[in-house]
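Fold Annotation — chain and its backbone
Next Lines — sequence and tokenised fold

***
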Amino acid sequence: MFDNNNLAPNTEKYHRTSILIGAGIIIVLAALLFASPALRQTFKKIFSERGTETSTDNRRRVEAVDGSFALVVPDTWTVLYPETSKLQGGIIIVESPDLKIEIEPNEKGGTPFVRHKTGAVLTITSLRQTGASPAEPKGEMKNKTQTIVGGLQGTFYEYRPIQTKEGELLEVRLKRGDDLYYFFRFAFNPETFPQGKQTFEEILGSLKIKR
């Protein structure tokens, strides 16, 4: 669980206008994986050995490809490991079995819109960046607090991304060292998955960082 003693409200305005890792793009990627069984099977076949997974007591332990961290998710959820890039040290996508996301084309072009119907999807990414911190999320911000998860300081956001027409996003950003950031993004619809925030906090409460 979050360290509630380290939560502090922060009402500062969000001035930055770009996001190095777009939450909407990550959600769309997860949605495309959900919509395309062939793509899902390809990811499972190619990357099933890139991460380590063990199951016990209806829970599944998921470890990062590079072994830098591990956490526990429900055993019935699907875990995918898309290919990494030089910028992102690794990506993990975890989907609930009842996940349903609808993609709506953007008539003006650009990133399509998302309607999150049921279930939840957790995306975990890492980013190495020197200098300025990654840009703030864009969208309808509901809450922003400081937190500590897995022994690392970070920020907890609750918001609705610009590309999302139904649903919302819970995001925790953690900083490790001088240039490594972890992003945990949990997309769900509170109307159909009211326990979403609790589920996200339970998952993060299991986070173990390799020292």
Remarks:
- The radius of gyration is 16 Å.
- Helices lie at 23-35, 37-47, 196-205.
- The longest strand covers residues 139-149.
- The chain has a mean pLDDT of 78.
